[in-house]
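Re-running the complex after MR caught last week's input typo. The corrected sequence lines follow. Everything else is unchanged.
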Amino acid sequence: MLEHYLFLSAALFTLGVVGVMIRRNLIVVLMCLEMMLNAVNLSFIAFARQLGSVEGQIIVLFTMVVAACEVAVGLAIAVAVFRTRGTINVNDVNLLKW
Amino acid sequence: MEKVLFYILGAITLVSAFLVVLLRRPIQNVLFMILMMVGLAGLFILLHAEFVAMVQLVVYAGAIMVLFLFVIMLLNLDQLKMPPPEGSHVRWWAGAVIAFAVMGMIWLAFKTYLAPPAASVEQAGVSNTVVVGKALFTTYLLPFEIASVLLLAAIVGSVLLARSKS
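Corrected-run output:
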């Protein structure tokens, strides 16, 4: 059964990567980042089940804390960018791009 | 029974993840993201991680996604004119190629591991929450406290960032 969970996790992570690559809306990009974090959480839990240890679940809790911080700061940045630029299309926000 | 449930929940999760990437209105993206989180919580319950599943429902599907909804409503994104279909064909093809590459790499990495069908020891009569709580407040007490400092820093940082300049 572990392989099935790992396959699902890999597919979710891949979808997240593709979303970050092809979507240009800053908020949707943040959501795809969340999707990747969730995919990794799923594989942590699957391994924790397989190995009969609780550490995987603890790590997932800490990942959730970090994800919550990341979303709060990321959305604040999105609001600030929208205030100054009037758009959250990441193609138009290229001040730091080489 | 477990397999059937896994396939149902996995299908829900995957399809809504697809829709998150493909649909163009941010509101629809958020709603399908919530569906994906709920599917994942179901999978966590299947894996006997009930506490994490509930935290997933409360924190992710509840708090974080509502925060996304708030920001989308606040910025009134749907009222802005929808851009023409995002991206060129080149970008979509590049996305597909990258998808296959990433998927292959992750799968290879997992394949090297997939060995021991270990003895998953379930202590009878002890609930998952008790086990997680004990580990969290004894072995992992220091990281737990550091996490609270991190949350505080995030609160202060996001308030500072989103504050209006006037």
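None of the earlier attempt is carried over here. Helices of chain B lie at 2-22, 26-46, 50-75, 89-113, 128-137, 141-162. Chain B has two domains: 1-80, 124-166.
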